[in-house]
Amino acid sequence: MQVTVTIILTACCVALSYFSFRRNRDALLACILGILVFSAFLAGSLFHPVELTEKRTSLETAVAERVNGSDRSSASLDYQAINDLPNIPVPAVGQIDFVGIRRNERVSPSRAPRLRAGDEIELRGRVADPLAHQPPSGLFVIVNSSLRPDPSSYREVLQRTAFTVDVPASLLKQGTNQLEIGAIAADERGFFKLPDRVTVAVTER
Q1: Domain locations along the chain
Q2: Averaged pLDDT, 62-67
Q3: Whole-prediction pTM value?
Q4: 162-168 and 155-159: which strand pairing?
Q5: What is the domain class of 75-202 according to CATH?
């Protein structure tokens, strides 16, 4: 509406200025009408500024949706809620510092862990929300890129940004598995993945 009024007002001022100057040669009136034209343009720019829409990358869109809360309304983070969390395409801050095998209550570091029945893979490290710059509100394990086991089926401890996770061999498929850590955002509206991925071989479940 404001744009239409501005255009009409500007057109009227230009027409009056043209005919007045042509017939009367009245420089003062022409100047006044010229000022009115300028004022009309100025009013239009002040009351209805042009909005430029920037192109967003998929990352920026995902972040904007997370900040605006349009991607998910968070409730208590039970197993189903964790499975419903969207992956925010920003790597979590931190890393896995230690990989080991827990066997008979003893933990031994291993560069290429191979689990037998009764063994657990233990992961330790640090993780933080890269957008909020805060500790995550929780974490969970991701198996083979898609499976998110029920957190009650393994042990995990999170103390601010430090974590320890023990995943039993029984939760993994026999053969080669890929393990990742998902860090739940501080506002619980999504999760980030640590960039590290640990390869675990299970010889016996």
Answers
A1: 2-47, 75-202
A2: 49
A3: 0.64
A4: antiparallel
A5: mainly beta
